[in-house]
Amino acid sequence: MADSSDSVSIDMEALSLGGQEHLVETTYGPVCVAVCGDPDKPALITYPDIALNYMFCFQGLLFCPEASSLLLHNFCIYHISPLGHELGAPLISVDTPLLSADDLADQIVEVLNFFGLGAVMCMGVTAGAYILTLFAMKYRQRVLGLILVSPLCQAPSWSEWLCNKVMSNLLYYYGTCGVVKELLIKRYFSKEVRGNGQLPESDIVQECRRLLCERQSTNVWRFLEAINGRGDLSEGLRKLQCRTLIFIGENSAYHSEAVHMTTKLDRRYSALVEVQGSGSLVSEEQPQAMVIPMEYFLMGYGLYRPTQSVSPRSPLSPTRISPELLSPENMGLKLKPIKTRLAL
C-alpha cells in the first residue's frame, strides 16, 4: 500500500478486497472492520447503508483514481460493517438482543479504542451517515469531520416508517424476496440506472442485486429495525463543531432530508453538494462528482492530493486553521447547492 512520499501507489487487487479484516469484539457483539492503508496515517472510518457492505458502498469511489489517490494518500481507511453485514457473515442468533441506533454509535467508540485511534474523519451513506452523525454528537472529541452521502437526521416520516415496516416483515418472514430487492434498489439508485421497459438495468444495479441475494435477511432486518426506530437529531446538529460536507443525489428519496439537515447545521462549518442525475448512492453512481468538493474540504485540514508537497502524517487539527478557512466559500463550496452533472 502507499507510503508517506509525495506519490501514491495503489494495489487495486488489495483495494478490491478491502485490505486486512479484523473481527472486533465489543459490548454489543462482534463487528468486522476492514483496514486499508498505512495505519500510521490519520484514520478515516466508513459506515454503509442498510443491506450493503463497504465493498459496494465505497468501491466505486475508491476505484475512481482521483478519489483513491486523495483518500489513500492521506488516510488509513477503516471500513466498519454493521453487525452481520460483512461478506460471508453467519446468521445472527435469534436470542441476540436487537441493537438500537445509539448502541451502534456506541459500538464505534469500542472499535476506535481497539485500534488505538483518537479523533477520526467519518464517511457514511444514508443509514450509515445517521449512525456517524449520532456518533459525532455523542463523542465530539473523537470526530474531526463528517462526509455524508444522502444522510438521514430526522425520525422516520409515516411513509418511510410504513415502507420500512413492510420491508422488515418481508425480511423476517420471507427473506430477501423480490419485493425487498426492488424497494432497496429504489432506495439506492436513480431511475436512469434502474432501467425501464426500453432501457436495461445498468451493471451496477445488477451487481447490487447479486449482493442482496448473498445477504443474511435477518441480519439486514436487525439493522433496518434500528434505523426505523431512530430519533430526531435536528436540535443537536447546531452544536456540532466539526466540519460537515453533505452530498445528495438530485433524484434521491432523501433529498429533502439532506436539505433539512443543512439548515440545522452551523453554516460556517457545513456545505451541501447536489449531484444531478444521481440517486442516493452517489459514491457508486457518480463517484467522480465527489472528488473536487472533497479535495477542497480536506484542504481545510492541510491535506492535499499527492502532487502537493504536503506530508500526509501532519496532524489533522482544525484548531490550527484560521476560522475564515472553515467557511463554505473558502472550502470552495457555495452556500447554495452545487449542481454537478456527469454523463452516465
Automatic annotation (TrEMBL):
<dbReference type="GO" id="GO:0005737">
    <property type="term" value="C:cytoplasm"/>
</dbReference>
<comment type="similarity">
    <text>Belongs to the NDRG family.</text>
</comment>
<keyword id="KW-0963">Cytoplasm</keyword>
<dbReference type="InterPro" id="IPR004142">
    <property type="entry name" value="NDRG"/>
</dbReference>
<dbReference type="InterPro" id="IPR029058">
    <property type="entry name" value="AB_hydrolase_fold"/>
</dbReference>
<dbReference type="Pfam" id="PF03096">
    <property type="entry name" value="Ndr"/>
</dbReference>
<keyword id="KW-0341">Growth regulation</keyword>
<keyword id="KW-1133">Transmembrane helix</keyword>
<dbReference type="GO" id="GO:2000012">
    <property type="term" value="P:regulation of auxin polar transport"/>
</dbReference>
<keyword id="KW-0472">Membrane</keyword>
<dbReference type="GO" id="GO:0009753">
    <property type="term" value="P:response to jasmonic acid"/>
</dbReference>
<keyword id="KW-0812">Transmembrane</keyword>
<feature type="transmembrane region" description="Helical">
    <location>
        <begin position="114"/>
        <end position="137"/>
    </location>
</feature>
<protein>
    <submittedName>
        <fullName>Protein NDL2</fullName>
    </submittedName>
</protein>
